[in-house]
Each structure stands twice: as C-alpha cells, then as structure tokens.
Predict the structure.
Amino acid sequence: MPFLEINNVSKSYPFRGVQKPILTNINLTMEKGEFVCIVGYSGSGKTTLMNLIGGLVKPDAGEILLGGKKVDGPSLDRCLIFQNYSLLPWLCARKNVELAVTQAFPNASRAEVTDRSVAALTKVKLGHALNRKPHELSGGMRQRVSLARGLAMEPEILLLDEPLSALDALTRSELQEELVRLQEHEKTTLLMITNDVDEGILLADRIIPLSAGPGATLGEAIPVTVARPRDRKLLNGDSAYHRDRKEVIHYLMSNGPRDIRAAAAKAKKATELTHNIMMTEVPGL
Amino acid sequence: MGKSKRRKNKMIKKIKLDEIFLPMLGFLLVLVFWYISSKTWAKFLPDPIKTWEVSKEYIIKPFEKRGEMDQGILRFTWYSIVLVAKGYALALIFGTPLGFLLGMSKLFTKLFDPLIQVLKPISPLAWLPLGLVLFQKSEPSALFTIAICSMWPTVLNTAIGVRNVPQDYINVGRVLKLSKFKMLYRIYIPATLPYMFTGYRLSLGIAWLVIVAAEMLTGVPGVGGFLWQEYNALIYEHIILCIIAIGLVGFLLDRIMMFGEKRVAGFLS
C-alpha cells in the first residue's frame, strides 16, 4: 500500500462568479521515504495542491489518503512549509519554532522543547539569530526559520512549497543537502514543489511535472536516473542528467501556457522536418 | 563639511520656529481675540487678566481642599480622572470581548451589528437619565454613561482587527493544530493588538468627553461638576479655568495612549 495516495482530486475556486477549475484529475502515489518533486509553472495551482494535501482546503472531488487514512483537515504528521514563510511576527525565531514543537511533542518538558527548537535552528545555520524577530531577519533567513519549524516537528511527511526559491545560491545548496540528509537518515518522506528543474533532478527520486492551468493536472512521473549521491559540480557532465532534464522540459513545454505550447509545437515540427530529411537522405540508417 | 553643518543648524532653527514659535503665536492670537471680545461684543466674558487673577488661587495651590465644591483645580481634575478610569475600564472589559465576538462570528455580526450602529450615536446626555433610572445613584449612573458611550470605538476596532488577521497566521495555527483557546491567545489576540489599541485610544478620548457632561448633570465633585457650579454662582472666570484644564488633560491622555499605540505597532512590524 502506498504511503500517500491521491485519487482523482479536483479543485476549483469561484472567480468573478464562475467556478474556475484549478486542478483536475490529480493522481499521485508516493512510497514511504521517497523524495518527489513537482515541477510546474507559477500560477498553475501548485500551492493549492499543497494546501489540499496539508488538509487546509478540501477537494471538490476525489480523495487523499495518507497511510491508508483519509486526509480530513490538518495533522501534525503532515507538516506544510509555506512559500511565504508565515512566521508569527510577534515571536522571535526560537519562539516561532517552540510553538510548533510544543504542539508536536505535547509531553516534552520546557527544556526539551527549547533544546529541540535550538537544534533545528542551528541545523539551518541560524544558531546566532535565535532571539531575532522575523522583521529583523532577511528573506532567506525567514525561510530557514520556517524550514526549521517544519524539521523540528519531525513529521512523517514534509510538504515543501517552493521553500528554497527566495534563497541565495549558497544557502540554497546548503539546505538542499540538509533535505537529502533528512531523507537518507531520518527516512522522512518529502514532497517538494519547485520551479527549478535542476533542483528537482539534484534532490528527487521522481519528478512529476504539473501542466499549466486552468485545470492543471499532473503528468507522467519521470524517474531521475542520475545515481546517488549526486554531486552538483559533476551534474553537468552526467549524461543521465541531460536526459532527465530534457524529458521534464519537454513535458512542460508541450503542456505549458498557450504561447509556450505554440513555440514548442513549432520547434517539434522543425525537428520532425530535419528528422524526415535525414530519414530520406540516409535510408540505411 | 562646514556647509552641511550650517545647513543642519538652519534646519534646527526651522524646526524650532515651526514647532515652538508657531503654536505659541496661535495661542497668543486666541488670547488677543478673547481680550478684544470681552471688551466689545461679549460684555459678560471676563478678560484673560481677570481670569488669571480670579483663578490663580486654584492653580497655585492645585491640591488644596477648602470645601466639597471649593478645591484646587488638579484635585478636581484628579477626581474626574478616577471616575473616567473606572468607566473606561468597564468599557474595555465589556467592549474587547464584544469586539472579538463580532469579528469572529458572522452570526453574531448579523445579530448585533445593526443594534450597535443605532446605539453608537446616542449622546451621553441621553444615556445619563436612563442610568439614573436604572441605578438611582449618581456615581454608578455616571460610570454607566461613560462605559456605554466610550465602548464603541473599542468594539468596532477590535472587530475590524480580528477580521483582518492575515490568513497566513491562521493557516499556521491550523497546521500546528492549535486548540481554540491557543488559537485565540497565540494568534488572534497578538495579531489584533494594534487595532485594539487604536480603539482604546479613541475610547479614552470619548470617555473624557463624557465625564464633563456626566458630572454636570449629577453634581459629582470633579472638574465638570465644578464648572457647572461656578456657572450657577456666576463666577465665569472659573468656567474658563475648567475648560482649559479639561482640554489639557484630554490632550495629555491622548498623547500617552498614542505612545502606547506606537509601541504595540512596533511589536507587530
């Protein structure tokens, strides 16, 4: 039995009096301990999908099962890391994390709560900024606090909604490594949304492309064939990397918004044309 | 360097001119207008000099008590502040939870919002007789009037604050599975605090406005009661003394609340 199962989920929102479909026929299965990246265009309903799995919104149709149980509202073993950090501005970094830890570990003593929170913040390299309020932190630091809050809860599945998109390249790669470590050592299941195909290839076991909205749906899963451990410096020389990348981009181009789709069709026609010419010219090939 | 320093000096001079000299000029103009009025069209109005001479006893010995209705101006003012503090406290104790209920529940809003809109514009002069009917004594009815008149900014601002709590914060609370109680005091109350404080400041302004009316009608000793008594005793100089005292105290209270409001807003930035 798969760990996470999404069956035919659809969701629409009212927009100027009409129901506008956001997601249609979403199907997804994930095994325990797997790392899956969903790659898609901005505005295609990625955040809605996360909120559905997180239990913040209910699907119009279909169902989401986690460990065989139907998702009905939020739960502490399904931790959602928001794209816009969503830190409480009146609490310092440590208190923001502590609030989550007290909820996730209701029997923990005061000291244990603090220890776990400090440990999580140290893990994301914020040990020096424990007592700073969110407005005293940079955007990247806020995102790291938000990530630390999720890590400290030790959930069974971590739902990451573009958590690294606002970070500088260095912090970003550090946190990517932290995510890989989390999957390897803590056996956490990770589902991450990203708009960066390379990030997906570096981290995920499988990449699932999301078509452009309205009525976006998930494409066929593309298994990442690059062998682990993956080294970002060697990635560019890896033929498996180029193959995977091409496949994901091909799907996104041909299922993108109308203008991109047209460009993709044109490009495809051109390659088909050269292909045909090659076929006729070299019959023995 | 020298140039910029000179410019800085010039700026300081300009600020001093704007912030000290101009307001003083404003006061002076009113004094002149007052003086001219008392000599021309308002024959019964005492002029500024006479007002000072008749009132100085009350200002120089501001805490002296010579009789029930003959006390130093600050002593009277203090009585009024104490009465306002009690009524204002009642307004906050009832107004804040009422605001939360209005902000949180659509049903409650539909049930009571129209009623509140009707009650809001009623003058203290209309409430006070009802207070006297209800409580039979002057102090409780004064408190009732202060509370019911000054409550509305607190109620409405709190409700607006609760409705404006960002969805992001509420989502955090939901993802963390906060209990209803924790949701209230970890998310809703801190997120609403700046709005609440604006309401508290406006409420205090109204409470101070109401006190004079309440004291005039009930005859409780205080700055408003004194004012009314001196009007009846034809000592018009003291009316002006009371008016100035009321204005200054109101201004001070507002400044104190503004300071608090700024602190709270900083806490949320």
